[in-house]
Amino acid sequence: AQSVAQPEDQVNVAEGNPLTVKCTYSVSGNPYLFWYVQYPNRGLQFLLKYITGDNLVKGSYGFEAEFNKSQTSFHLKKPSALVSDSALYFCAVRDMVDSSYKLIFGSGTRLLVRP
Amino acid sequence: GAGVSQSPSNKVTEKGKDVELRCDPISGHTALYWYRQSLGQGLEFLIYFQGNSAPDKSGLPSDRFSAERTGGSVSTLTIQRTQQEDSAVYLCASSLGQVGYNEQFFGPGTRLTVL
Fold first, then answer.
1. Quick one: which of A36, A77, A37 has its CA closest to A55?
2. What is the pLDDT of residue B1?
3. Helix, strand, coil share (%) of chain A residues, nearest 5
4. pLDDT tens digits for B46-89?
5. Residues in B touching A43 (Cβ below 8 Å)
6. CB contact under 8 A, B107 and A43
């Protein structure tokens, strides 16, 4: 069965410091991986995705994520956090062998960037 | 251009009543998804439509839930005989074509409260 784990309910960082939001996944085939961000009272916004190719994927707002097949991880990173990055972040996976195109989401990680 | 829109934004209903939630996907997107986000939880897949193919209903939690997509565009999610555990934010998303790595674009959601 497909699954996604976000082991941290909340991540706290100081503005200007690097941030990492962790994600691990389990699929039977090869994964398509996604990160979404949700600001208060708003829908999810797409940040970036991994399909194939380079393991380091760059996305919106200066975020990037590194795909690690051996560790089945897809951690979200940013070199220098902003207070405005504070939001709820979701990792999601789709198994390529799954004929349904649904995404399986993690439980979310709340990022709090303090000034 | 216009994004995914959902209506109503908020719906309060009494236990046992039926509700209808509407989703207008991005023009030209052939794939449409419904998800549910309960308080403090991640997103739970409900149903997926792709063009004229039979929908994937595997995520619907009970036979009280149903969805239609008319003319390959607008979709309606219907919950009959609502229960308090149905209280959640219902999110609709759409994406291009029949390719599993296309990102999904989410609407702002409908917050359903069952009293």
1. A77
2. 56
3. 5, 50, 45
4. 999 988 888 889 999 999 999 999 887 999 999 999 999 999 99
5. 4, 91, 106-109
6. yes
